[in-house]
Amino acid sequence: MGVLNVTPDSFSDGGRHTDCAVAVAHALSMVEEGAAIIDVGGESTRPGATPVSEQEELDRVIPVIEALRARTDAVISIDTMKPAVMRAACAAGAELINDVMALRMPGALDAAVATGAAICLMHMQGDPQTMQAAPHYDDVVQEVSDFLAERMACCVRNGIAAERIVLDPGIGFGKSLEHNLTLLANLDRLAVHGRPLLVGVSRKSMFGALLGRSVDQRLPGSLAAAAFAVSQGAVIVRAHDVAATVDAVRTAHALKMRRAAT
Ligand SMILES: Cn1cnc2c(O)nc(N)nc21
Q1: pTM score, two decimals?
Q2: Which domains are present in the chain?
Q3: Residue 19: which H helix or E strand, with range?
Q4: Does 120 contact ligand 1 (Cβ within 6 A)?
Q5: Is 35:77 a contact under the CB 8 Å cutoff?
Q6: How much distance in Å is there from the Cα of 188 to the middle of ligand 1?
Q7: pLDDT on residue 12
């Protein structure tokens, strides 16, 4: 899953049209490098990120999704918490809703049901403004697992077939370094829900804490964590550096397949 941030701070000083053309070109290059999914996001979910209005988010992502839909068969994912953005993005060609709030915002569940899209349910403790203040768990793996089970049950109760659902532990979303490492080390315990697992570690602050690396020096750590996650059962890896991550993930998968053969 290639990351496509359509937020002003992720582009040069071009206007919106430039941003759209630049975004589409970047997305197509990620597809070329092996991305099966392009995750289009118009509102940063980084810790402490400033919320974006619904109209601003729509203005950012819809033109990009429309242009992308016309240029590639890759799956387009919409990274949003807002029901109106989910509906418009799917109408424009998105086929996966990537909601870091796991459809907990008012109207999000109804929007997801109406679109018929696949859904990624991700765990977050708190919200992007507060989640890293003082995250606490008694048993992080069990609590994340229970949350995902509850959200999936809620979706199924509302008519979203389990086959449409992907689960994600939400690395970095209300977690300390210890919590993130424990979740990745025990990712296989989330396989009990019988749904594909999505993991996003790319360039995250856990590598600053663990390795002392700045955000532009986190590729080795990100690749190691992505490969380990695949060895533990992750099926989708969300990444900025697609070519390198594709090689790491394909290597880990080849090795994992041989373990199963012995
Ligand atoms: C948008 N976004 C940022 N990090 C993410 C992660 O780890 N998983 C998912 N599903 N989305 C993410």
Answers
A1: 0.96
A2: 2-261 (3.20.20.20)
A3: helix 16-32
A4: yes
A5: no
A6: 19
A7: 47
